[in-house]
Amino acid sequence: MTSPQPFTPLSKLPNFDPRAIPVLGQDHHLPAVTPAQLQAAALRQRFSSPPDWSPEILGEPRFTQRPMVQASVLIAIIEREQPTVLLTQRTSHLSNHSGQIAFPGGKVDDADADAVMAALREADEEVGLRSEFLQVLGTLPIYTTGSAFVVTPVVALVKSGFTLTPNTGEVADVFEVPLHFLMNPAHHRRHSYTAEGLERQWFSMPYQDAQIERFIWGATAGMLRNFYRFLIA
What we know:
Nucleoside Triphosphate Pyrophosphohydrolase, eight-stranded mixed sheet
């Protein structure tokens, strides 16, 4: 078997700006997850009795030949009147996915019992979200990034009373996006871009947060799209 040919990650291409790539379409024809389905009790029930479903996106074309790295992220759903998802803006100097919007998470360490424990540890280290405020509901299918991370998305509810202390070496900002916005496919925009002879496709979910546009795209948007498919199945 031949090794995959390396190519440049999108974020490293000269003058590449994901915001400037034309939108191919939005899925206005697909139903949104209802507000009732997004409440804590309904989410617990969905994970305790999961439907027969399939993820829409399993991964991205690889742009590196380095060995695959096991990782996990935390999809932290904050229990508010309207539930929200906790997201971070990564600092610009990081070697992977710098400046992008992401879930708290990272590489699974040898000391981690499993991917779930890795996600909880990373959330504590990155933003100071302690596990005592979390109820893990379950995991979503593995998502493989182009940078060779094999990511397990861990979904958890976050009860009130928590405080955050972001690690400024890794996290430039922490913010919340309403879950109902992310689980409405009318906000899921499709993009396609060809470079180095390879077509790359992805979703974006731009969210206007006061005066700031939170441009959610790539792997984070892909995992959210799979979460949508799980909840709507």
